[in-house]
Amino acid sequence: MSKALALVVVLFFVAFCGECYGELRFEFYKGKCGITDVEVVVRDVVKIWHTTNRERDIAAALLLSDSIKVFGKKNLSPIDMVYLLGGHTVGKTHCSLIQDRIYNFSNTGVRDPTMSNWLFSELIKKCPRVPSFDNEIPLDMRTPSFVDNSFFQEIQKGNGILKIDQQLALDGLTKKIVGDIVKDPNFYAKFGEAMVKLGRVEVLTDGQGEVRTSCRVVNKKPFFFGLFN
Ligand SMILES: *[C@@H]1O[C@H](CO)[C@@H](O)[C@H](O)[C@H]1NC(C)=O
Predict the structure, then answer these.
(1) Residue 228 falls within a domain, yes or no?
(2) Which position among 84, 91, 180, 181 has the lowest Cβ density within 10 Å, counted as fewest Cβ atoms?
(3) 199-221 burial by CB neighbour count: b if 16+ within 10 A, else e?
C-alpha cells in the first residue's frame, strides 16, 4: 500500500472512531509519522490528481475515491464504506476542526457553499468566530445519540458536519448509494452486515495484536518495558 493510501486509511479511521482530531488541516500531521513527511506525500498525490483529473474539490474527492480503493483492497465495497461512514451518526467533532468550513472555507472568507442555511445558523451559535471554548459538535445534529439513517438524510440536505460526510452525498461515486440507503427500510440489518464484514478484516489472534484502550492510538507500554526491550 502506498504511503498516501495508508494516510487515507489512517484519516478514515481517525474520523470513524467517534471524535475526529484529524481531517485535512495544514501541519496537523507534521512530525507525527516518524521521518515521513506525510503532508509532502499528500501534496504530491493531490498535484497529480489535479493535473490529471482537474477536480475542483480536490481534497474531498481524493479522500473519497482513494478511500473506495482502500476499502476495496480489504474486500469492502463502496456500499460497505458508505454504510460504515454512517457510524458518524453517533460521532462527534470539535469546533476548531470545522471552523474553516463555517467562516473561511478554502480561504474564501465565507462558509463552505455546500453547507445548508440551517446548519450554518446552528453552527454559528455553537462555534462563534472568536471562540472562548472549543465546543463539541455531534456529527448527526438531529439524533446525535441514536444509530439511525438520519445521518444520511441530513447529508442529503447539506447538513454534513465534516467535509467528507457532506461529500458522500454530493460526489458521483457515492451519491446514489446514499440515496438508496435513505430509502432502504433495512438500514439496521445492512449497517450490521457492513460492521461484521469490517470486523473480519485482517483479524489478529492469540497475542498478535492488542485491544486498544483508546481507539486512536496503540496502547502505551508500561515504563519498565522500555527499559528492558
Ligand atoms: C481567511 O483566511 C486567510 C488565510 O488564512 C486570511 O488571510 C483571511 O483574512 C481570512 N478571511 C477571513 C474573512 O477571516
Answers:
(1) no
(2) 180
(3) eeeeeeeeeeeeeeeeeeeeeee
Residue with the smallest CA separation from ligand 1 atom 12 is 109
Q: Is 50 annotated as a binding residue?
A: no
**Does residue 79 register a pLDDT over 80?**
yes
pLDDT for residue 42:
65
| Alpha-helical segments (H) within the chain | 3-16, 38-53, 58-73, 78-85, 95-103, 117-126, 150-156, 163-170, 175-183, 187-199, 223-228
Question: What's this model's pTM, rounded to 2 decimal places?
Answer: 0.67
Q: Is 133 among the domain residues?
A: yes
Q: Is residue 77 part of a domain?
A: yes
- Which of 100, 105, 107, 130 has most ligand 1 atoms within 8 Å of CB, for mutation? 107
Cell of residue 77, nine digits: 465495497
Residue nearest to atom 3 of ligand 1 (CA): 107
Look at the chain and report how many structural domains it folds into: 1
DSSP for 146-186, please give it. S-STHHHHHHHTT--SSHHHHHHHHSTTTHHHHHHHHH-TT
| 80 annotated as a binding-site residue | no
Position 225 in a domain: no
| Other CB atoms within 10 A of residue 164 CB | 22
Mutate which of 26, 102, 104 for ligand 1? The one with the most ligand atoms within 8 Å of its CB, which is: 104
Q: What is the CATH number of the domain that holds 149?
A: 1.10.420.10
* pLDDT top residue among 215 and 38: 215
Residue 133's domain comprises 3-218
